[in-house]
Amino acid sequence: MTEDEIIDEGAEHKTWKGKLWGVIKVILIIVVTGGLLYWVFSKVPFAKIKFRLAHANRAWLTAAILCYLGSMLFSSWRLLSFFKSIGLRLDWRFNLRLYFLGLCYNVLLPGGIGGDGYKIYLLHKTYKLPTKKVFWAILFDRLSGFWAIGAIVVGLIILIPSFPYHLGIPLSIVSVGSVIYYFVARKFFRDYTHNFFSGHLKAIGVQSMQLLSIVCLLLAQDFNGKFAPYLLSFLFSSLAAVIPFSLGGGGIRDALFLTLARQFNLTEDMAVYLSFGFYLISIIVALIGIYYVIRPKRLEKGLQAPSEFSLTEQK
Hints:
Layout: H1 3-12, H2 16-43, H3 46-54, H4 58-85, H5 92-108, H6 114-127, H7 131-157, H8 168-188, H9 196-219, H10 228-240, H11 252-263, H12 268-286, H13 290-294, H14 296-300
Helix pairs in contact: 2-11, 3-12, 4-5, 4-7, 4-9, 4-12, 5-6, 5-12, 6-7, 7-8, 7-9, 7-10, 9-10, 9-12, 10-11, 11-12
């Protein structure tokens, strides 16, 4: 979604074309998510996944949920860093509430403007900020997540002795890519790099907490094998989960995780249990945002009025 689409979408959906496109998007999301899940469970019977979930250690399942919740707290903190880069100094509690509302939109409301789109719309409407400015801050927040996945992937590859290529290759790609990424951002998007390093360190925290969630799901099955191949497969599947035509990444992550499991000779039902279990956890945590859908006044608590808000200009 571009910044222009975010502004225009509210008006567009009042027209028959906008309503038709909204219906088509919902249908596409349901078809893609449902179709991929059907394919996954045709390869790995759902009864096996249900059995694993039903007999999983409850303490480790709770720990997995708490780790994922922790990753969302890290993610909200990371986004706040990029907002501060453009001088937008929001109250951290309001930012956290807005973040969970965004999760709710992303995971539970197919065909809507999405969590990121709502954040941009609300901040643009409230503070009269250029939509492009907020859009790029959120985009760099997402890019930091991609960078963190790449960095952690290299670390996990070191733990896989059967990796077919010299370790210097992925290490060089990530190192050179990181340098190019920083200097391009510094050259062309200087305003968004004031908290560049702290934001990207927090991105490492986000992905690390999600990996801990997967570790907890494995421990819930009394797993005592090699963790690295499962964690690596999870990270790769997370990249695919950002594809817009799926319900919170459901189906796409499972299909890719299953495909990678075959490449790494992993237990297929364990791989699907991990991806599907993680998907269920993301839904559980996203349910927190429903509270702010029902009680929008609670969301607005801590939202400064435009007259009270001062946008710090970055030099």
